[in-house]
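Format notes (please read before filing issues)

Several people have asked whether sequences and structure tokens are stored in separate files. They are not. Every record keeps both together, in the order shown below: the sequence lines, then the token lines. Line labels are part of the format and must not be stripped during preprocessing.
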Amino acid sequence: NDSYWEGSDPNIQEYPVFKVDSSTYCILYIKFFTDKLFHSMIFDMASILSKKQQIKGTPGQVYVQLKQMIGQRFTEKYLFYLIMKGILTDKRYQIWTGEQLKQSYGDGMPDMIAIKAQRVFVFEFKDVQLSAKVKESGDFDTIISKINLELVQTEKGKPKGVTQIANVIEKRLEKLLPSNEKFKIYPVLVYTESSFDLEGINYYLNNKFREILSSRNIDDNFCIKDLVLVNLETLFMFDRAFRDHKLKFDVLINDFLSYKTNKIEHGSVPFNKFLFQRGKAKGYFYKSSGIVRET
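Then the structure lines:
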């Protein structure tokens, strides 16, 4: 019905469900639907806490505080490691969590390091969100500026994301690795913001990463691979394939890096899409997670 949208500006991210009739609803996009459920629940909690003054601030300010608390206490400290445990199933991996690394080597370490033979995976996890205002701006400079602030460095010069990984490779990895051996270093940035799934984001951040590395003093024994962005939700979706040894993380990353260089048009393809294709080919699309069965 053309008149339905007359005078309106429909936004399926804000309204991901379409009412067909009094008893039938159509989910327009499942990711927007689940995001809406999750964030609406947090905002409802924020509104109640703000109204009762259990947390000071407007509902919007309390919402930001709650999101930070959930990220710090649950997503970063528990969920990230739980999912990665199911992904890195090969017993040959030597794995250190961020807490273990900090206790043994002090500040400045990544959220996880996994070593398998001469392959070293450096994981940095970022539970950040781009605001609707930024995502809907349609302005390249606005979006890139926010990505830089969240995943490169803050306005005050504090390292974030790719810069943190570069710092680890230059200054901290030598503490874990023998000095007389050669290693392949795989920088991996794990995220939760679905907008980072889009073509070109990984390409842009890898260029920033390479630019940062070019001014650093990197150990000659380190062969630094391209940066790979990985969506935590997608790993969760296909974790059963990893647990069943149908997918192997290190092999998948190497295959993806080779795929990117095969053709020029592959250069901007995100790892998320590559993993979807491999997971579906193995028959694991939308199969229940091993984490769900365990918990």
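For reference, the curators noted about this record: The first helix runs from residue 30 to 51. The first strand starts at residue 17 and ends at 21.
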